[in-house]
Amino acid sequence: MVKLSDVAARAGVSPAAASRVLSGDSTVRVSEATRQRVMVAARELDYVPNHAARSLRTARTRTLALVVPDVTSAVFAELAGGAEAEAASRGLAIVLGRSERLREDGDWLRRLVGEGRIDGVILQLPDGTPPADLQSLVMQDTPIVVINSVDDGPVSTIVLDDAAGIRLALDHLRGLGHHDIGFIGGLPGSATGARREAAYRSAMDEAGLPVSGEWMTALGYAGTEGRAAAVELLERASVPTALVVANLNAALGVLAEIHARNLRVPADISIVAMHDVWYADATWPPITTVRMPLRELGAAAVAALVDDTAGVTHEVIASPAPQLVVRQSTAGPRE
Amino acid sequence: MVKLSDVAARAGVSPAAASRVLSGDSTVRVSEATRQRVMVAARELDYVPNHAARSLRTARTRTLALVVPDVTSAVFAELAGGAEAEAASRGLAIVLGRSERLREDGDWLRRLVGEGRIDGVILQLPDGTPPADLQSLVMQDTPIVVINSVDDGPVSTIVLDDAAGIRLALDHLRGLGHHDIGFIGGLPGSATGARREAAYRSAMDEAGLPVSGEWMTALGYAGTEGRAAAVELLERASVPTALVVANLNAALGVLAEIHARNLRVPADISIVAMHDVWYADATWPPITTVRMPLRELGAAAVAALVDDTAGVTHEVIASPAPQLVVRQSTAGPRE
DNA sequence: TTGCGATGATAAATCGATTTATCATAGGAT
DNA sequence: ATCCTATGATAAATCGATTTATCATCGCAA
Question: Can you give the pTM of this predicted structure?
Answer without folding.
Answer: 0.90
